[in-house]
Design brief:
The complex is a heterodimer of chains A (451) and B (117). With 451 residues, chain A is α+β, with helices and mostly antiparallel strands. Chain A has eleven helices and 19 strands. The radius of gyration of chain A is 24 Å and the shape is globular. The chains are: A alpha+beta (451), B alpha+beta (117).
Chain lengths: 451, 117
């Protein structure tokens, strides 16, 4: 029988559910449980928070919840963990995990912290141009909050080779988190682009968790999903040649079908023949998907091309503020009242001299999501929320949005519904730009801890 | 006979910076040539007029019966800067479900989902 490695997903983003991770750890018969917990701006947001609150440890705010849920079953089943919950402090996260291991009485468990993705202090020397608009990266000089390189799987593989049972990193490309165990278990080399293409392709199918097991998918009558309130996270059974079966724990809700897999295959992919990751360039175009059993899809034909000489850098910059609020109308004439309310707000913003780069006043229920694409003959809804947002340079200007919406309470239109002002009507914008850095300039480092 | 694309294909959108990719995946292999012929990049861009401000590139993956549209300038300047309530553009793909496709009568019985055909 072919040897397979079973890798399960534990999260697809910071706010993801914890219960499916615990289910995978307890019932997935996993060799590895992998967590992806970052969005594009996660690192920058953590840096901003750290500046304001020195007591913020700088790793996933749900680290404790996730580890307490999965460590006991993972220890019981010998499941190793690979996770990017280290954010801006992988060493702190590793030490915190060691703390929980000790609480559980687990002795001699090796935990690795992978560092080296943060390059905030040298990003301007290492990079040249901004990918999005071609400007020199030094144009961002005064607004940079954080800069991090997307590392590949190699440092995680090194940590596993050194005997780590748990590897916690900062920024690592999402698919690489899931591929590192395949490289380690099957001895795939860093330049073996054929197998790494398959492995990183599988990593891409796994990185968004439930998005391949029936999440972000259901459309009643067209694409029905069983028990969509009880979705499981995926499990991939990988063979040494990079062929695999995608599945999930039996008895859970959701579905694994060629349809769910195809939707995830294209998710955030541009050219399907050239999906660039730090480890390899994945080619999805010859993929074959076959339903071989209930909630079991066989994936073959993923391939790869040699990796690029550069690594991607994400540069987070402060770019001002967004002020945002909403209020409501219902019943006959909801739209005409909302239209007058918009006019009132436009005039009020002129009167209070709102200095904004952009202002948007939408009718939620009619055109707030698809905006200018909304058909002109769209029927008038029974209820409408007037949602107003403005992007400004300063917090003071952004505050004007909420203050003018407050004015709509007693000085507005008839039958205006309004919620009590809450505290988060202004948020800081962290714009994310990209650049490239020569691969050889980045040298990750690994620190080991033991319970 | 013209029908909404939702009876022939399913879709998903993903975000990267100010670019949205929208995949359009045929429910049946027979539907794929219709999509490929009728849902061109130009028509896709026209269907998203007012929201997509940049270039639209179409990638074809025949083996999976899928088209992948990469729409630049679709996210109001980028996820973190966008004033759109759906700043990630997660619901952008649903717009293409309303695109009208001319379907031969012979394929009518294969169309998916409820509602008028």
């Amino acid at each position: 029988m072919t040897r397979t490695v079973r890798i399960g997903a534990g999260s697809a983003w910071w706010g993801d559910r914890i219960e499916p991770a615990a289910l995978n750890a307890a019932q997935g018969k996993l060799d590895y449980l992998c967590f992806e917990t970052m969005a594009e701006a996660t690192i920058s947001a953590a840096q901003v928070r750290k500046r304001r609150d020195p007591s913020f440890p700088g790793y996933d705010t749900y680290l404790d919840d996730r580890m307490r849920a999965v460590l006991p079953p993972c220890l019981a089943h010998g499941t190793r963990i690979v996770t990017n919950q280290g954010w801006i402090n992988p060493d702190g996260a590793a030490q915190r995990i060691v703390h929980w291991l000790r609480e559980l009485g687990a002795k001699g468990v090796k935990v690795a912290a992978v560092n080296g993705s943060l390059i905030t202090d040298r990003v301007l020397e290492l990079t040249d141009r901004i990918l999005e608009d071609g400007r020199p990266t030094r144009a961002l000089k005064d607004s940079i909050v954080s800069a991090e390189v997307y590392l590949g799987a190699e440092p995680i593989v090194e940590a596993l080779q050194a005997g780590a049972r748990i590897v916690v990193s900062g920024r690592v490309a999402d698919p690489s988190i899931f591929m590192a165990p395949m490289m380690y278990e099957f001895g795939w080399g860093a330049l073996d682009h054929a197998r790494l293409g398959a492995g990183n392709g599988l990593g891409h199918l796994m990185e968004c968790g439930a998005q391949v097991t029936g999440g972000y998918f259901a459309d009643p009558g067209f694409k029905d999903v069983p028990d969509p309130w009880n979705l499981a996270f995926p499990i991939v059974e990988v063979e040494p040649d990079g062929s695999a079966v995608l599945t999930k724990v039996a008895g859970s809700g959701g579905a694994v079908t060629p349809m769910t897999v195809k939707e995830q295959l294209f998710y955030e992919v541009h050219d399907p023949a050239n999906y660039i990751t730090p480890d390899v360039v994945v080619d999805f175009t010859a993929a074959r998907l076959e339903q071989i059993g209930p909630d079991r899809v066989r994936v073959t034909g993923l391939s790869g091309k040699p990796r690029t000489p550069t690594l991607k850098v994400s540069i987070g910059c402060t770019e001002g503020f967004i002020g945002e609020d909403m209020f409501f109308y219902a019943g006959p004439g909801a739209l005409r009242r909302a239209q007058l309310a918009r006019r009132v707000l436009e005039e009020r913003f002129r009167i209070v001299k709102l200095d904004a780069e952009e202002v948007r006043i939408d009718f939620l229920g009619l055109n707030a999501i698809h905006g200018a694409m909304t058909p002109p003959d769209a029927p008038e809804p029974y209820e409408i929320a007037v949602r107003v947002a403005a992007r400004t340079r300063t917090r003071e200007e952004a505050n004007k949005v909420g203050r003018e919406v407050d004015g709509m309470a007693v000085s507005g239109i008839g039958m205006t519904g309004k919620r009590v002002p809450h505290q988060d009507r202004v948020r800081e914008i962290i714009g994310v730009w990209s650049s490239l850095v020569p691969r050889e300039k980045i040298v990750p480092s690994i620190n080991y801890y033991e319970s | 006979m013209k029908v909404m694309l939702q009876h022939l294909a399913h879709c998903r959108s993903g975000d990267k910076g100010n670019t949205s990719n929208i995949s359009v995946i045929a429910y049946e292999p027979e539907f794929y040539p219709l999509l490929k012929e009728q849902l061109t990049a130009e028509r896709f861009k026209a269907h998203y007029a007012g929201v997509v401000t940049g270039t639209v590139t179409r990638y074809e993956v025949d083996g999976l019966g899928a088209l992948n549209f990469v729409a630049e300038g679709a996210l109001g300047g980028g996820v973190s800067r966008s004033l759109c309530l759906d700043n990630y553009g997660k619901s952008l793909s649903s717009r293409v479900l309303a695109f009208e496709i001319d379907v031969p009568d012979a394929l009518r019985a294969k169309l998916h989902g409820p509602g008028p055909r």
